[in-house]
Amino acid sequence: MKRFYLLIILMISFGALAYADDQQVYYDRYFRIAEKYAGKGNFSKAFDSYKKAYEYKQDTFEINMAMGLAYNEIKDTVHAEPHLLKAAEIEPFNLSANLAGGVICRINKNYRKSVELLEQAYRISPFNFSVVYELANTYWVGPRNARKAIEYLERARSINAHVPRLYTAYGRIYAETGNYDEAKGYYLKALDLSTDQGNKKVIAQANDALKRLERKMF
Length: 218
Fold this sequence. Notes:
Shape: elongated
Mean pLDDT: 91
Oligomer: single chain
Distance between the termini: 96 Å
Strand content: under 5%
Low-confidence stretches: 9-19
Radius of gyration: 24 Å
């Protein structure tokens, strides 16, 4: 009887191992397919394959990071957020997870979590321009903390003073706090830099901001 029970236990164990192996095989297969599509810029097909991979494994950093970024690519930040939060939870010292998660949380107006993740990203990489810049944006867009926002913009400028969007961020804060002359100076700086660099997006943003500012000043 004992031998019979032992055989049953062994059969169950081997069955569980075989099932786990099958899960891993399917996960790896779909994940590789998704990565190939993503590498070619076909994010729609990449997303479908990531979802299939996720059916077989939900608790790894790589699949949650991939799912979060894939959702973001199809403009679905609501579903991107929990995956990026999970990725940051699994690997709390991963810069990409904290940075991406912080930006997505800000877009979704989850400002408290955005600050938390971006502050963690800042601790990981304090001289990363994107981290410092995004943290400044979150402090202004969320808690409307102009002092902290300007403080981080100053740090970003010390890292790289030649990024046009840095000065549109300054301009926005000063304009929205009623400091129109300062705002105009920063928008003009953004316009100069973006013109030199051929950055059409920032040129349009700066020109539009200057027109709105002129209406407020006169």
